[in-house]
Amino acid sequence: MGNEKVRVLLIEDTTANAGLLVDELRKSGLDPLWHRIDNEEEFLAQLKPTPDIILSEYRTQNFSALRALELLKQKGLDIPLVIVTSNISKAAALDSYKQGAEAYILKDCLSSLGVVVERALGQKKLREEKNAAIMALEESEKLFRATAEAAPDAIICIEEPDGIYFWNRRAEEMLGYSSSEVMGKALHPFVVPERYYERAVKGVHEFFRTGRGPNIGKIVEFEAKRKDNSEFPIELSISSIKVDGKWKAVGFIRDITERKRAEEERLKIQKLEALSLLAGGIAHDFNNMLTTILGNAESADQEKDPAEVHKKLIEAERVILRAKNLSQQLMTFAKGGTINKKTLSVSALIEEAVFTSIKAENIKYDLICPEQTWPIDADEVEMSQVLSNIILNAEQAMPNGGRIEVKCSNESLGKGNPFQLEEGRYVKVSIKDTGHGIPKEDLKRLFEPYFTTKQRGKGLGLAIAYSIIRSHAGFITVESKVNVGTTFYIYLPAVNTFTSRM
Ligand SMILES: Nc1ncnc2c1ncn2[C@@H]1O[C@H](COP(=O)(O)OP(=O)(O)OP(=O)(O)O)[C@@H](O)[C@H]1O
Ligand SMILES: [Mg+2]
After folding, report:
1. Residue 211 DSSP symbol
2. What distance in angstroms lies between residue 463's CA and the mean position of ligand 1's atoms?
3. Which end of the chain is more exposed for a tag (fewer CB within 10 A), N or C?
4. Does 337 have pLDDT greater than 60?
5. Higher model confidence: residue 139 or residue 268?
6. Is any ligand 1 atom within 6 A of the Cβ of residue 391?
7. Residue 388: CB within 6 Å of ligand 1?
8. Which atom of ligand 1 lies closest to the CA of 436?
């Protein structure tokens, strides 16, 4: 602290006495800017601006160190006061400490004055820094509270072991509990629906132990429970902080009831639009088919030649089968879910589909399906429909002939796989053709209902395949190169895919 200007207020009877102290301070390398007073009035006048330190005789003629300490206390001023005196009793010294004196020094040991003053100034600085830090902390705490209270989302903070330590106003409105009801208690009984309870509690324990968890740092959708036990959809984002070696979590909860409702509404409207489009198309198709059937029936009725009658009836039967097939596809589409699941061998399904779908003679095929391919749980009719829709497309993409290769293999998919499928065991089926391929701009729309490039296509084959595969918790995707060929890949969960992980 050498040569720093120090504002010193001296309470002394004489200037000579004061001068001795000032000399001593200079000797210690301090640069005192000093003023001497010897009465209360002058003392009060000298407190502005506040001196850095006060050196005071224990008692002067008109004033005393203890009175000065009292006045400082009254004014709430933190100015270190060191008593410098020729004589002081033990009791008086003790009393002066009680009243807040920083130290006392006897005038015949003045050599320690510099050190004592420097130490007192250092401690005062520390106190000031601490106060400033506390004030900054209080301010940031106030800011946090003001922000959190005004936030449109519920904000909840939890820590171990006391649970909830912050619950903002929006949380009160959204969940129905006041902050005082939940403070210091475990979070889950209040907000987590019973069926998710165990998993949530496990997750939170793991978080407190490791600071990690599957939902930290992400935005995830869940359901939450209100005080009245009603449930509602939420979007939750959690961030984590470590304070004093302990993990704390801050959760932001957004009520997405309205958004979900709007989404559902939009889907309903889309479905209605799709249905009206579909109804129009079907009415037209069925009408054509009925006309053909009727025509054949009438002409068969008038036909004498049995061979011709037979031909007409066969023709009518073919159209009836087409109509049946169409209505079956539509039923699957309308239902949108699987009902008849059983354990199936993929290779048997594929063989059947290839044999029944490939009609053209200029199409060759290869089947590569190893015996150890895992079985799947699926609806047989629906799965055959998927395969035959894809194989039929392949055939139609090769009017001048070509080759279809159907392959299956076992695949284990981990967490974070590109298809966003659950971790587990899958059977992968690929169906490759050497047809005309699909231009890039069409690839995006391939699975849309009614997307077709064919003159007599309905654009339903792949939309139906997609919805069936998704309802089996699988995935379908495609790769294609114009003039080279197209490959469809299907992933289907193998039997026991999830229990096998336990
Ligand atoms: N293997 C393929 N090669 C080339 N293009 C294909 C292939 N598979 C599908 N496509 C393209 O995707 C479109 C949609 O196929 P999708 O099976 O959904 O309908 P579609 O075959 O046109 O009619 P349908 O409802 O009778 O099946 C087809 O029109 C075609 O352009
Ligand atoms: Mg098709």
Report:
1. S
2. 10
3. C
4. no
5. 139
6. no
7. no
8. 4
Residues 143-197: pLDDT tens digits? Answer: 999 999 999 999 999 998 879 999 999 999 999 999 999 999 999 999 999 999 9
How far apart are the C-alpha atoms of 299 and 302, rounded to whole Å? 5
- What superfamily would CATH give domain 151-255? PAS domain (3.30.450.20)
Quick one: pLDDT band at residue 274, thresholds 50, 70, 90? low
Using the mean position of ligand 1's atoms as its centre, give its distance from the Cα of residue 105 in Å.
Answer: 101
Q: Which atom of ligand 1 is nearest to the CA of 437?
A: 4
179-192: per-residue pLDDT in tens? 999 999 999 999 99
- The response to whether residue 460 sits with its C-beta less than 6 Å from ligand 1 reads yes
Ligand 2 centroid to residue 401 C-alpha, Å: 17
Distances (CA, A) of 193 to 176, 189, 355: 15, 8, 50
Question: Is the CB of 453 inside a 6 Å radius of any atom of ligand 1?
Answer: yes
Ligand located closest to 458 CA: 1
Which CATH number is 341-501 given?
3.30.565.10
Strands 231-243 and 246-255: antiparallel
Residue owning the nearest CA to atom 28 of ligand 1: 452
CA atoms within 13 A on the CB side of 423: 7
Query: Based on C-alpha coordinates, what's the Rg of the chain?
Result: 44
State both tokens at 349. 């399904």
Top pLDDT among 376 and 457 is at 376
Query: Is any ligand 1 atom within 6 A of the Cβ of residue 462?
Result: yes
Tokens of residue 311, six digits:
């031909």
pLDDT tens digits, one per residue of 479-501: 999 999 999 999 999 987 443 33
Q: Which ligand is nearest to the CA of 391?
A: 1
